């Protein structure tokens, strides 16, 4: 419960950095129990929220937490991994992941797949709590290696976030 709350608080902070708008199409990678998905469904009343998580248990918990938004057709949660996402290219305006990238088998390959599903000029935010085990060093470089531009870090005493943009040319 403490970890879920900490991740939710970090997720709220990251969503603010991402400047999520009311009609955006937003993807969360590794949504866990779905607390950030729930917040996004409030921030994005006229858009689309999707999520992918490799844990069947987390998909179940997140679906239970977000049942109304799922029934309304505003939220779609899928079982799967960042390496091969079941979404079309150029689908999302914004993408976020909270305490997730550090457990991906290949972070740069995962980020390339994220870039594929993002719309040109789309924005990504990778958020981490201080207990995530993810060092700040190298995150912006991984985003650049995956083809993102304008990669930068933003941090507080509790967490940090790497932000970047998908270039218009792909």
Please, how many helices? 6
* Mean pLDDT, all residues: 93
Rounded to an integer in angstroms, the radius of gyration calculated over CA atoms is 14 Å
The percentage helix is 25-40%
Low-pLDDT segments: none
What is the percentage of strand-forming residues?
25-35%
CA(first)-CA(last) distance? 39 Å
Structural category is alpha/beta
The beta-strand count equals: 7
The helix/strand order is HEHEHHEEHEHEE
Please tell me what the overall shape is: globular
Structure description:
It is a single chain. The chain is an alpha/beta fold. The chain is built from 6 helices and 7 strands; from the N terminus they run αβαβααββαβαββ. It has helices spanning 2-18, 35-43, 56-65, 67-71, 107-117, 139-145; strands at 25-29, 48-53, 75-79, 92-98, 118-129, 149-155, 159-165. It has a 7-stranded mixed beta sheet with strand order 3-2-1-4-5-7-6, sandwiched between helices. α1 runs parallel beside α2 (35-43). The longest helix is centred in the N-terminal third of the chain and has 17 residues, at 2-18. The radius of gyration is 14 Å and the shape is globular. 44% of the residues are buried. The model has no long low-confidence stretch (mean pLDDT 93).
């Amino acid at each position: 419960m403490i970890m879920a709350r900490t991740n939710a608080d970090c997720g709220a902070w990251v969503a603010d950095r991402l400047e999520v708008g009311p009609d955006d199409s937003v993807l969360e990678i590794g949504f866990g129990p779905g607390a950030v998905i729930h917040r996004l469904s409030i921030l994005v009343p006229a858009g689309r929220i999707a999520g992918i998580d490799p844990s069947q248990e987390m998909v179940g918990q997140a679906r239970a937490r977000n049942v109304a938004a799922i029934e309304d057709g505003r939220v779609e949660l899928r079982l799967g991994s960042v390496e091969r996402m079941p979404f079309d290219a150029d689908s999302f305006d914004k993408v976020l992941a909270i305490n997730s990238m550090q457990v991906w088998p290949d972070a740069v390959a995962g980020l390339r797949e994220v870039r594929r599903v993002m719309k040109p000029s789309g924005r990504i935010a990778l958020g981490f709590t201080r207990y995530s085990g993810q060092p700040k060093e190298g995150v912006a470089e991984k985003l650049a290696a995956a083809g993102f531009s304008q990669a930068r870090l933003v941090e507080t005493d509790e967490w940090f976030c790497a932000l970047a943009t998908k270039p218009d040319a792909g």
